[in-house]
## 1
Amino acid sequence: MPIDKSIIGKTGKPFTMPIEWSKVREFARAIRDLNPVYFDPELAKKECGGIPVPPTFLQVAAFWMGEDSTPTANFDLRRILHGEQDFEFLKPIFVGDVLTGTSRIADVYEKEGGRGGKMTFMVTEIEYKNQKGEVVAYARGTLVETGQAVGG
Amino acid sequence: MAAKIKYDAVKAGDAIPTVTIDHVSRPDFVRYAGASGDFVPLHYDQTFVEAAGIPTVFAQGMWTAGCLSRCLTDYAGAGQVRRFKVRFARQVWPGDTLTCRGKVTGKSEKHGEKLVEGELEVVNQKGETTVKGNFAVAAA
């Protein structure tokens, strides 16, 4: 399928992402991170000013983004690879914050791959603002659709 | 939070603490799917992956990236990470043992904050790189 460059710049409907302690500690455990600041609110307050979030926690946005918040290309699920992920943090994020994320397709391009044949890349950028309207983070993800199944 | 690292004491080439992930297993992927909401079936549905010509389920790249991020929070303190960028080079399979490591490549100041920058990688038990990364963390 030829790539559709017209989707570049397409922006999703803003979505709300409450930063909840239960999800933060579940996430920390899932990445085998038993750092007590994720599990002990008093210690976290003393050491960090609140319960912080692991650097990759914003990936949980997948839970909160409806389809209309997720501008996307029509990729084949069996051939998708997550190529790159880039997080930039401008302000602290704590449990109790309510973030608003807005997703935008930053780029779409094709490259000749090796074993995988022709590959299509889509770069999505999500801007996160906190309840005070401050931009706290950017999450930029690159998805790759390979020419054939990804694990062979 | 007080930054754990002292800007003046850090120099290019310094190693950051290594994190070892022993015996990667399917429950890691399932637990991560639940925690993250990443329900791409490649990571837990054996029937689906076999139909796609892949021998077994494999880790979510972001699970491995999350394990790697522990190097930074152990080194600089939780809440001190300013940039964390990863590139996925190779799948992580059940049974793998991963070594997450990195080193400092430089220092800079941005928005009035002292930053330590560097590179990261995750290697498997065969010495193959599965994830490569770059970071910036705040220092005191």
## 2
Amino acid sequence: MLTEISTTRRLLVSCAVLLFGLPAAAIDAGKAFDDPALQARYEKLIEEVRCLKCQNQNIRDSNAFLASDLRREIRRMLAEGMSDDEIFDFLVTRYGEFALYRPRMQGKTLVLWLAPLLLLVAGTGVLVAILRRRMSMPIDDDEALDNTVAGRD
Amino acid sequence: MTRYLVPIGLFALLLPVFIVGLTRDPSELPSPFLNNPAPEFALPSLTDPGSEVGSADYAGEFALVNVWATWCVGCREEHGFLMELAQSGAIPVYGINWRDNRPDALNWLDRLGDPYVFSAFDADGRVGIDWGVYGAPETFLLDPSGIVLHKHLGPLDYQIWQRDFAPLLGSAEAAR
């Protein structure tokens, strides 16, 4: 009986290890930098760069070899002391603004940044207009109500 | 009735946007190199590891640069057409053997024929990144000054060549 439980438990643990361990094994193991500040920058950078081959993943989560190549290049550039902006420039000149999950605000990408704001303003405008009209409608006026109903097609 | 005209009008305005959006392939990214100089490179030759090949070799002529690999199904698909193209003499074809291993790549050229003036051996994908390559096969058409006239993603065939490449080659040559 005792051995049975431990076998089940062992099986469960093995399954858990397999389930949660596999993704970790797919991506580069261990830390890239000993310096915690560099490591933090590295982790932030690879979260912000799109894997061009597997477009809805960033290069941190992807094990496509293009993603691992890009991680290697980013490690190299960090080790060479390049700034985040220089690294983003490197990627954008090669792959275009699409490579960045947060495209920088400039000419072409302005519409991306402003569209949500414009839509919000337009939506609020429509909402206010509808509310105003409803509020100006008579509430307890049966005649007006009848007229409204009658006026419908 | 007029109250319905506004949403219908808005929808009519949006319709072309949807149609264009549906027919476009989101995996095809515009190359930032289009109409700009292609990156320079120098790499060991695939067939002759001791010698170096690169962008200097095709300076001053029209060139087709094809990024290929033996693990790439689309490359197998387009190989026959590349052979025909190279034999026709329309344009010299240069290869960048991307993220591949040498014995496999040599075996491939041996079995299927070698359409390339040379194949540069980009084992670790550095030059691929410089060219903004994200999936083989990719094919770049360069003019004699090294400007990228066109980039094609995916297997090349006669129809695509006639439609996208030949006119550019013709008009650029006529302009010279």
